[in-house]
Each structure stands twice: as C-alpha cells, then as structure tokens.
From TrEMBL:
PANTHER family: ACREF/ENVCD OPERON REPRESSOR-RELATED, ACREF_ENVCD OPERON REPRESSOR-RELATED. Keywords: DNA-binding. This is Transcriptional regulator, TetR/AcrR family. Pfam families: TetR, TetR_N. The lineage of its organism: Bacteria, Pseudomonadati, Campylobacterota, Epsilonproteobacteria, Campylobacterales. InterPro entries: Homeodomain-like_sf, HTH-type_Tx_Regulator, HTH_TetR, TetR. Residues 24-43 bind DNA. The keyword DNA-binding applies. Transmembrane segments: none annotated. It comes from Arcobacter acticola. One of its GO terms (molecular function) is DNA binding. Residues 1-61 form the HTH tetR-type domain.
Length: 213
C-alpha cells in the first residue's frame, strides 16, 4: 500500500469516527505517525483527501455499470451492484451522513462532485436504454427515464441517513437502504428480468445475508 493509499484509508476511518469536519490534517498525520508536512507532500489539504475518497467511492459503486458490454444482450448484474453499494455505504458512510455539510464547506469538492454526478447520470441513462432495448426494463419515455435516474440518486444518497435516524445498527441500516433501492427498481423490471436467477436471489441475500455472490 502506498503512502497516499494509507492516508486515504486512515482518513476514511477518522471521518467515519469523528466526522470529516471534525477531523484535521493534524489528526490524520498523527494517526499515521507522520508529520503534517509529509502529508501535504501527498495531498495539499483535507479537501484533496476528501475528493480522492469520493472518486474511489464512485469507482466501486459504478464497477458493474462500467463493466457491462453494451453491444450485447446482457442483463445488468443488479445483485452485485446492490451488494457493492451496501459494502461501499458502510465503508464510506460519512459521505452519506455529512454530504450536505461537505458540499457547503468545500467548494472544490462540490464542483468535482457536480461534474462527476452529471457523468454518472449519463452512464445510468445509457444503462437504462440498454436494458430497455434488450427487454430487461419496461419501455419508458425520455422524461420518465430522467425521473427514474434522478429518483434513484435521491434514494441512494439519502437512505442511509434516514435509517440512521431510527437505528444505530449500521449494517442493518445499509441493508434496508439496499432494499429501498431494489423495491424502487423492481416495478420497472420485466418478466424476463424477474425470472433471472440473480434477480430472484436478491431478497434472500439482502434479508438473510446467507448467500454468497
């Protein structure tokens, strides 16, 4: 693991424990037994660390979207996508719990997040069009697709914060968030999708956590 990777991992740990806004670069450097000057050699400030963490999070969350072969009749691996999101929501939970404060506090982070969000929205639209083309998602007009994608983002960004208000069980809350997403998507799936084995097993995985991918 490189020094930059270590800084990122320790920062994630401290941001989850203390909150990003309550964690300074001094806290991060002390946890790593390095000088603040050494930390600044790798990252200019905390905002750069935060941005690197956010981009790492997106890479994990959109792994399945990026790996789909759009030239083929291929069903999107929704189960893997939901499980990747579940794991990422737990590891990077501060991004969900502090998101509004982070975008208000760090202008460069906000700008990068807006740019990345627009890119990811276009990726999801491309995915939806592909799944409609091959009969895995019901037919929708462009306006409906826009709303479907934006509603998906709203659920993904806010479900963990909602469940954390009601319970301190982080893993269970993340599972409930994944179920929120699944039940939102499910009415849009065709019979062809619902008969696919990986779709059939989603509820067992999320509710019982007994089945491996």
């Amino acid at each position: 693991m490189t020094t930059k990777d270590k800084i990122i991992e320790v920062s994630i740990k401290l941001f989850n424990e203390k909150g990003c806004l309550n964690t300074s670069t001094r806290h991060i450097a002390d946890e790593l037994n390095m000088s603040v000057g050494n930390l600044y050699y790798h990252f200019k400030n905390k905002e750069e660390i935060l941005t690197a963490i956010f981009l790492q999070y997106l890479e994990i969350v959109f792994k399945e979207v990026s790996s789909l072969d759009y030239s083929q009749d291929e069903i999107f691996l929704l189960k893997n996508f939901l499980l990747d999101n579940l794991e990422a929501d737990i590891k990077y939970r501060f991004l969900h719990l502090e998101l509004n404060l982070l975008v208000m506090t760090f202008p460069s982070f906000k700008k990068i997040m807006e740019e990345q969000l627009q890119n990811e929205i276009e990726m999801i639209k491309k995915l939806v069009h592909h799944q409609i083309k091959y009969g895995y998602i019901i037919e929708m007009q462009d306006e409906e697709i826009d709303l479907f994608v934006s509603n998906s983002w709203i659920i993904a960004c806010n479900n963990l914060s909602f469940w954390n208000l009601l319970s301190n069980d982080l893993i269970d809350n993340a599972k409930k968030g994944a179920l929120n997403m699944f039940y939102f998507i499910k009415p849009y799936l065709t019979k062809k999708s619902l008969e696919n084995e990986q779709i059939k097993t989603i509820l067992n995985v999320l509710k019982n956590d007994k089945e491996k991918r």
